[in-house]
Design a protein that fits this description.
With 270 residues, the chain is α/β, with parallel strands linked by helices. The chain is built from eleven helices and eight strands. Helix 1 crosses helix 11 and helix 4 packs across helix 6.
């Protein structure tokens, strides 16, 4: 299963990425959790200690590695460099093995993508080419469950990569800005040929919130909802991963996962 998760900033996509990683790992699956958001908060959500988080180097900042693999110095524009560099050893050689609950010890590998300085300008520089190749390798060529915590958009995806995504999940919260972002993302995703687009509602206070989102996004496949939970806020304040918030949150995410599997198998459960 290859899952890309996106949504407006602050809706909880990183929390849901971490919880889904935990659920898959607790079932015995090997998981690659890829942080493709420049804010890079997935390490915190996975419960990685601060002293270890400070040692994690984003892939985009591994200048010597990128130069060796592409044949060009990061930051250089133009010139000749490899568009298909070697990346198959990156998860094992440069990923961080998340140590958590004994049920899923060493089952989750975190990769922090980072962002090349020139990526925002649309530059097809060596580091940007390297990141795109890595993402395609993870989504199209790996056997593990891959969960990508993305920015509020699809800028990392190319058409070739998008074709390998099994589920494109947009996380929303009650609010017009969140819904507008979801519709924008859906349009961009469909332009790339992505058809399996789903929505997860987060921070739901009551049934009115849920119906508001369902009615506004009726053209989305709805996977489920996570209720507003003070325990999640408390764990965040304490620097703990969200899977330690409450068993109820885990049950909600398991239900979302089962709903996704039902869509994938053609047996939709609403």
């Amino acid at each position: 299963m290859k899952i890309a998760i996106t949504g407006k900033g602050g809706v909880g996509k990183t929390t849901i990425s971490a919880l889904l990683s935990y659920v898959y790992a607790s079932e015995g699956k090997k998981v690659i959790a890829l942080d493709a958001d420049p804010d890079a908060n997935l390490a915190v959500a996975l419960g990685i200690p601060k002293e270890d988080r400070e040692k994690i180097i984003p892939i985009a900042e591994m200048s010597e590695l990128i130069e060796k693999r592409t044949g060009a110095k990061p930051g250089s524009i133009g010139g000749i460099f490899k568009l298909n560099p070697k990346v198959d050893d990156i998860p094992e050689g440069f990923g961080y093995k998340v140590v958590g609950d004994p049920m899923w010890r060493d089952s989750i590998t975190l990769l922090v993508m980072g962002k090349s300085k020139a990526a925002s300008s649309g530059c097809y520089c060596p580091e940007n080419a390297f990141l795109r190749r890595l993402l395609k390798h993870l989504i199209v060529e790996r056997d593990e469950v891959v969960i990508v915590d993305m920015v509020a958009g699809i800028e990392h995806l190319t058409r070739g990569t998008a074709e390998g995504v099994d589920a494109f999940i947009v996380v929303v919260e009650p609010g017009q800005r969140s819904l507008h972002t979801a519709e924008t993302i859906k349009g961009l995703a469909e332009d790339l040929g992505i058809k399996k687009i789903y929505v997860v509602a987060n921070k739901i206070r009551n049934e009115d919130d849920l119906m508001f989102i369902k009615n506004a996004l009726s053209d989305f496949n709805f996977l489920g909802a996570i209720r507003f939970n003070n325990d999640i806020m408390e764990t965040d304040i304490k620097g703990l991963p969200p899977y330690k918030a409450s068993k109820h949150v885990i049950k909600e995410v398991i239900k979302i996962k089962k709903s996704l599997e039902s869509y994938m198998s053609g047996e939709v459960i609403q």
